[in-house]
Amino acid sequence: MDNPVKILIPCGSIGTGIREEEIRLGISLGAQAIASDAGSTDSGAAYMIQGVGKYPRATIKQELAILMKAQAEAKIPLIIGSCGQSGSDAGLNWMRDIALEIAQENGLTPKIAVLYCEQDKATLKAKHAAGKIKELPPLGPISDELIDSCEHIVASMGVEPYIAALREGADIVLGGRTTDTAVIASYALLKGAPAGPAWHAAKIAECGAQCTVDPTNGNGILISIDDDGFEVEPLQPNNSCAPETVCAHMLYENSNPFLLTEPGGVLDVTDAKYVQKDERVVRVTGSRWIEKPYTMKLEGAAAGRYQTLMLIGIEDPEILGRIDEFHDRMHAALTGRVHSVIGAEAGDFHISLRVYGWNAVSGMQRPAGTPAPLEVGILFVATAATQALATRIAKTCNPWFFHWPLERNRELPSHGFPFSPAELERGAVYEFKLNHVVETDDGFELVRSQWIDLSNQAETV
Q: Which intervals hold domain Acyclic terpene utilisation N-terminal (predicted)?
């Protein structure tokens, strides 16, 4: 291996901020590759269905241009995973087209590998029939009907397709849905780094400067992986890493701080040691990689019913002193009103009242004796088969929010609507349908690749 292997991670996800001075510093410190995530399921299923990224196209183009110019100048690989937020074929093509636009405008001629991982339903049904798909909590077993209900399904890639693309001379690798760690670990493993340090360093680095003492001070970090471990260094000179900030990142999106499951194995950091090498750099040793049968996580999504929202502000002290009672009685009254006014035509509708300022985030009842808030905002959500019907339900419920008393024959309260019209049509409800793992023969079975060589304008599949 090149000892050490140095990889520049410019940010947690492309679109969240890249600083040119950090890229220059990382390259001057010997970075041999640039690797970054560009997506996540964190923001929901909408982006998989819509086929575009979460962040503005102009922002993605601006940041990707910085990286592509740096790649061309330094002649080091640029590796990006989960393109287009969801990593769907459409999202990946969206980002591919941005990259091609940047190349044309700046006279760049990279050799680009594009790795697709959206799945054919027939393939997954065959896997299901062979007993090769298992559910992850809280979802239940897979079925052909569940597979058919999804509009798009991706399989989260590991390192193997990236390593193959880099071996074949890719200057830029754009990947569909990929584990955050695989994007970063791929280059280190290609160069012969031990699997334990490579995967562990990638996990710590996946969110850029989030593993530093001051995660708001800068975006990027540099990891250096050698035969015995790895080191983590911020790319802002006045920031630093500490053992506790580095080891804490094993808890990020991971229920077990010592074990991390990835395609083809498990990272075990039970015996890892985190040492302050100097005032800015932390060194980590003792990471182990345990090979396991190869699996890939399946994420599937579909658009469902439609929603219309209303926002209502309440400052009435009597209602706020009995807010749980108000919620329950109001919900019952609104549901009853829809049944009596719209009747069977309302179909299988649903109304929810989310009391922000009280328990809307947690959904948990407040402990007895909790002081009443000074004001709350109630988010009314009507869900129905069509947008028109959801809005009709909201309009039917609207007048009850103006003057609905807790006690009869009392002065009527008055509540505030910040918008007119009060009804906000949210559109379709996008939801994830699959959270399963599929067994595969290897890391290539469910992946397709496309090559675009701008040096001679060739394109192969």
A: 60-397
Number of separate domains in the chain: 2
Residue 290 lies in a domain: yes
Could you report the per-residue pLDDT of 295-337, keeping only the tens digit for each? Answer: 999 999 999 999 999 999 999 999 999 999 999 999 999 999 9
Could you tell me if residue 24 is inside a domain? yes
The answer to whether residues 111 and 232 belong to one domain is yes
Average pLDDT over residues 67-87: 98
242 and 164 assigned to the same domain: yes
Q: Are residues 359 and 288 in the same domain?
A: no
**Distance set, CA 67 to CA 28, 31, 76, 111, 353 (Å):** 15, 13, 11, 15, 45
- Residue type for position 300: G
* Model pLDDT for residues 247-302, shown as the tens digit of each residue: 999 999 998 999 999 999 999 999 999 999 999 999 999 999 999 999 999 999 99
Amino acid 140 reads: G
Tokens representing residue 90 in the block:
């459409």
Name the DSSP class of 270.
T
Instruction: Give the residue numbers spanning the domain of 282.
Output: 5-117+156-294+440-460
CATH number at residue 416: 3.30.70.600
pTM of the entire predicted model: 0.93
**Is the sign of the CA dihedral 176, 182, 183, 187 positive or negative?**
negative
Task: Report whether 7 contacts 31 (CB < 8 A).
Answer: yes
| Residue pLDDT, tens place only, 119-155 | 999 999 999 999 999 999 888 999 999 999 999 999 9
List, in sequence order, the alpha helices (H) in 134-261: 144-149, 160-167, 180-190, 195-205, 243-247
- Virtual torsion, Cα 270, 276, 277, 282, nearest 10 deg: 60
What does the mean pLDDT of the chain come to?
95
Classify 233 as helix, strand or coil.
strand
143 lies in a domain?
no
